[in-house]
Amino acid sequence: MKRKLLPLLAATVVISPLFAQKTKPITGYAITAPQKGQTGWKEVRLVDITTGDELRPIYRSADQVEILNARTGRPVVKKESNSNNASTRKVVNLDDELDGKDRTPGMDGNRNTQVLSIDAVQLKRLKENGLTNLAMAKKEWKSFYDKPFGTNSAACAYDRKHERLYYTPMNINQLRYIDLKSKTARIYYFEDELFGFVTGLGDVDNQIPRMVIASDGNGYALSNDANHLIRFTTDKNATITDLGALTDDANNANYSVHNHAGYGGDMIADASGNLYLVTGNRNVFKISIASRVATYQGTIKGLPQGFTTNGAMVEEGSKVIVCSSQSTVGYYRFDLVSMQAEKISSSESVFNASDLANGNLAFEKAKKDKKDKRRQEVVDEPKTQETDIAVQQQQQQSAQPEMISKYNISVYPNPVTTGAFKLQFTDQPSGKYQVQFLDINGQLISKKDFTIHNHRQVEEFRLPAFVTKGTYLVKVISESNKISYAEKINVE
C-alpha cells in the first residue's frame, strides 16, 4: 500500500509548485476596433492584460442592443424620426435667446461652473456658424447619433459599485453607460443633457478622451484642451456639472496641461481624492479635484518609439498600465514615482485600444494600511498625547443626530444639510486656531483661521461649493499645531 502511494506523492511534489505559481489575471475594459491593428474605436471588450487576448466581448458594433433612457428606462426615440419637433423652430434673435434664460448657474453653486441647457448650446453653435435653424445644426449628427458608438469613443470608466461602464462618444455631447449586470445587452443614454461642448466632427479641442470614477464615487471626464472638467454622479438622481478649466501649477514650467501636443490620453484616480492625467504624449499630471490645479509629475520613460499613451488603468499601488491606440506591440506598466515603464504583456500582439478602465485606485492599499493603524491620522502629523485622547474619544462616540461634544468643542448640525456647519468653543484657551475640513482619507479640502478670545465663541464654516454628499473629517488645530479636536461629519 505504501509503495502505491509513492508515485502519487512524487506527482504532488511536481504539480504543487505549478499551482503555487498561478496568479490572478490582470483584466481591463478596452475600447477597440473589431480586429487588432485596426482603427475605429466602436467596440468594447474585456481583455487579459498579460496575454493581450479577449476574455469576453462587451459590445460589438454588429450587435443588436436595447437603447434606453437613463432617467426613465424607456426606449430612446430615434432622432431621425423626431426632426419635426419644437426644437426646429426659426430663431429670430440669437442674442436674446442666449441672454440668460437658457443659461443656469452651476448645479454645485460655484460661480465658476456652468450648466447649459441643450438648446442654449445649440443656439450658441448657430450663432458661431451663421445658421438660423436648429435642424441644420443637428443634420450632421443624424446619421450616427442613435448608434451606441456611432462616432469613435476614447473615454470610458468602470463603475464597480453599480456594475456599469460609462462612456461618451467623442463627437456627441452625451453621457452613456453599458449595463454590465443585464442578461441582455442594454445601453443607457442621458438624452438631451449636455455632456461636453463639441461643436462638430472637427472640434478636437472639445472632444473628451479622458474619464474615470474617482474615490468619491463620482465620475470625472476631461476635454482635450483641459478647459472642461466635467463631474457626473453615479447615484439614482445623477447630475452632470461642468466644473470649469484646469489651472497649471506655477512650477509646471514648459509642461502645460493645455498643450495641444498632449491631447488624448486618459485619467486614473488615487485613494486620496486626486486625479492623474496621462496625456497622449506620455506626460503625467496630478490633478486636485478640490482646486482643479494640475501639477506636472514627469514623463513616462522606457516606452517603445511610436507608442502613444491613449488608455490607462491602475494595477495596484503606484503601478499604472497603459495602452496605445497606434501600437499592438504590448501593454506596459509604469510607476507613478519613478515614471519608468516596462512591458507587461507576454504576447507579440495585443489589441490596440483608445481607452482602458478598471475599478482600481492608485495607492489604495497604502491608504487602507494607514487607516487601520489609526482611523483619523493625517499623514506625517506628529503624534501627541492630545491626539491619542481625540482618537480614543472618537472611537467611543455614540450616535447623536444634532450635536457631538468633545474637549468643550461642539460641531452642529451633523449631518450638514445647508452647506455650512458651526463650531462652538467653551472655555478654550485664548489664541489662534485653524479649522480644517478634510476628506475621509485625510486630504485637506478647505480651512479657516480664527482667534478665540471669549469664554464661549461660535464660528461658522461654509463648505466649498464643489463638496458632494459623503463622510468628511473636521479638525481644529491650535497655534502650536496640536490637534485639539477631530470628528467625522456627514454632508447630505
Overall outline: globular
Structural class: mainly beta
Return the CATH architecture of the largest domain. 6 Propeller
- Report the sheet with the most strands, covering strand number, pairing sense and barrel closure: 5 strands, mixed
Secondary structure layout plus pairing:
Blueprint: H1 2-20, E1 27-32, E2 43-48, E3 54-59, E4 66-69, H2 94-98, E5 103-105, E6 114-116, H3 118-129, H4 134-138, E7 153-159, E8 164-169, E9 176-179, E10 186-189, E11 210-213, E12 219-222, E13 229-232, E14 240-242, E15 247-248, E16 266-269, E17 274-278, E18 283-288, E19 293-299, E20 311-316, E21 319-323, E22 332-335, E23 341-343, E24 353-357, H5 364-373, H6 385-395, E25 404-406, E26 409-412, E27 420-426, E28 431-439, E29 444-452, E30 456-462, E31 470-478, E32 483-491
Parallel strand pairs: 4-10, 15-19
Antiparallel strand pairs: 1-2, 1-24, 2-3, 5-6, 7-8, 8-9, 9-10, 11-12, 12-13, 13-14, 16-17, 17-18, 18-19, 20-21, 21-22, 22-23, 25-26, 26-27, 27-30, 28-29, 28-31, 31-32
Core attributes:
3 domains, five-stranded mixed β-sheet, Immunoglobulin-like, 6 helices, disordered N terminus, 34% strand, 492 residues
